[in-house]
Amino acid sequence: MFWKRLLICGVPVLILALGIRMVRHVREQALQPATDKVSLAVAADPDVLNPFRRGNPAAELVEGVIFSRLLERDDSLVLKPALLESWDVSQRTRYFFVAERHAQEGMERIQDLREKWPEWGVSGLLAEKDEVRVIFENPAREASEEIYALFDESKLLPVRRLRVQVLHSARESFRDFKQNSFEGAQVRGEWFSGNSLYEVMVAGETENFFREFGMYHTSNDSLGASFRFVEDLPYLEEPEMLLTLRAGVTWHDGTPLTSADVVFSFDLCKRQPWDAHLRDVFSSVLALSAPDASTVRVVYRNRAPMAVETWAILPVLPRHVLEGKDEAWWAEHFERMPVGSGPFRMGEREPGRVLVLERNEDYYLGPPRTERLVVWEMADAAERRMRLATRQIDSYIAGAGERRFLGRDARFEMWDASLGRLRGVFWNPGRGPYTDARLREALARAVAPEALYPEREDSPAGAVGGLFHPGSIYAGAGCERMKFDPALAMKLCGESGWVRNAEGALIREGERLVLKLGVSEDVPSGIPERLKKAWSRIGVEVETEPFPAALFDRAGEGGFFGSDFDAVLLALPPPVDWVSFRHGTLGRLALEAVENFAVGEGKPREIRARLEEAVEEGELRMLCGELEAELCARHLFAFLHLDREARAFRRGSIFVSRSVGDGQRVEKPLTQVAAGIDLDLSWWAKMSAEGEGPGKDAPGGIK
């Protein structure tokens, strides 16, 4: 009887249990990521896939594997070739003479001293009309000066630099002037920055030239021209670089990548209609040309100590796809489905849901082992966690509040990624009471970073904590992190002559302390109000005024220190180090400070002069570290916040071993390196190129 009942009742239960187990197994198999793909979730759809424009973080993530750079950095921030195979630096120095016969005499004088050429580093000599050109193997300021001393100054023509500002059509208007002028032959060089600013180098009968130049602009009122003399030079120094491209690189559509693409990308960078956040990086470039398909020749308008560094920043875009296309075409086509030369190409895209990147089989370093990178848009944090738990995605960037929640769940593991966008207040130390470093430090110490960025589950990042000098996040600065200390803030206010009245406002000589704060449009909402609240507690009245981020990029020679803000609140991209970043927004601020503020006297100015002479990367890094330490010590700026991101992984989902030097290896696709940057999506491609990376036959593989 027992066995009969067991047979009648047990068999159906067993069948049901096996069925449930089978369904669960099938479902798990369906949800298990395939070994040939990695799936990531992002909070927003990659909006603008154009490396010349500021896109959202998801777009920047995707661009990193679609587009290649000429140079890139390894984990130790050392430059290494990418699209470039090699680069050579030299210099051309141009001397101008009153007459052609004097130029010939000058060349003969140099030829008579040929035994000095190795000492000078001279590799070539040319006389052309009234000009002598000396080619040096390396930048050679001292040698240029020594050769200049050989000539009779009465037979030489000095060079005058004229800076011109117009409302529009800079290139077109100047070309028209040269074609129709009598004195145009006196122009020895020209340099353009965008469509409104340019410089002209003139040698000869300059009085006649400038009279004709002025008459031309007077008769063209619509240009709204203004100009001034910048400086007189005894001769022109024009450093040169020859960039040699790697052979065999193709675009995703199979078209060869050539030097014409590099020149096109450079011109696009200088003339683009979008926010020109890369334009200042190349402000020293006088001319760019392509002698042949694999060579780019760069001529600089003055000494460019970081010439090599700048080419690690320029994105290279396909000329054959983009030439002649207007902004509307870009928005509809290229910025949605771009063509690049990187390790992955665009595949399926469903805006607002998913973007698939397919392996580039013809990638110049070899095809990545991972066949597909799948980027899902999931705005809801709960959905991201659910899909991670059910193995539908492998990883996503977790919000500040999620870090603790996920860290306690045995199914997940957290891996700190890079410092993200840097958000901070940058003081204008030349304005009013803020020339006093004690007052600037007081306002910095009155702000608690955690109050600026309250941790919420949907917050994109968590604050590192504390207040920062600029050097705190750069290599070699040796600066300590500042601490939130409202009591010290009040003490410093008192030391600088500001005391609180009965209403709690800071007063000095009957005037209230007012701070005019410019707020960049890309700063998250809520932060300015929280800043105002923090400063009001110590008695500071704050007036905020928004301004477009592009306005700051295009501030011109006056820069931030020429503005009427007491300080600006900015959101800046992740810095790498001063060697590279000094060309950008933050670096420009610090170097302007050397020139515009009393702090620039003494050692900072001395370091600045040495920077202009330096060429080697190691020396540049050391000098930049010294300069930032000097500026930090004087409290020029205070960073209020640094983003920190953490990526959540389903435990055991992705294990790939890779070398980090000294015989050590790490088992994660994200890692902190010298500047706090991570490799993120590009890691799956770069590691594959080195024979490591996810795949069925890789150590550990994707499970």
Task: Provide the descriptors you would attach to this structure in a database record.
disordered C terminus, alpha+beta, globular, 28 strands, 703 residues, 32% helix, six-stranded antiparallel beta sheet, eleven-stranded mixed beta sheet
Question: How is this structure best summarized?
Answer:
This protein has 703 residues and is of the alpha+beta class. Helix 2 (57-66) packs parallel to helix 23, helix 14 packs antiparallel against helix 16 (486-495) and helix 21 (603-613) packs antiparallel against helix 22.
Structural class computed from helices and strand pairing: alpha+beta
Quote the average pLDDT: 75
- Largest sheet data: 11 strands, mixed
Shape: globular
In total, how many beta strands? 28
Helix content: 25-40%
Radius of gyration: 30 Å
Q: What fraction of residues sit in β-strands?
A: 25-35%
**Secondary structure tally, helices:** 23
Uncertain residue segments: 10-35, 455-466, 468-479, 553-558, 574-586, 670-680, 686-703
Could you give the distance between the termini? 49 Å
Protein topology:
Elements: H1 2-31, E1 37-42, H2 57-66, E2 71-73, E3 79-81, E4 84-96, H3 100-112, H4 117-120, E5 122-128, E6 131-136, H5 141-148, E7 159-165, H6 170-179, E8 187-193, E9 197-202, H7 206-218, E10 226-233, E11 236-245, H8 259-271, E12 285-292, E13 295-300, H9 307-310, H10 319-322, H11 327-334, E14 344-350, E15 354-359, E16 372-377, H12 381-389, E17 395-398, H13 400-407, E18 412-427, H14 437-445, H15 449-452, E19 462-463, H16 486-495, E20 499-500, E21 506-508, E22 511-512, E23 514-520, H17 527-536, E24 541-547, H18 549-553, E25 567-572, H19 578-581, H20 585-596, H21 603-613, H22 617-633, E26 637-650, E27 658-661, E28 664-666, H23 680-689
Parallel strand pairs: 1-16, 1-17, 23-24, 23-25
Antiparallel strand pairs: 2-3, 4-6, 4-11, 5-6, 7-9, 7-10, 8-9, 11-13, 12-13, 14-15, 15-16, 17-26, 18-25, 18-26, 19-26, 20-21, 21-22, 27-28
Helix pairs in contact: 2-23, 14-16, 21-22
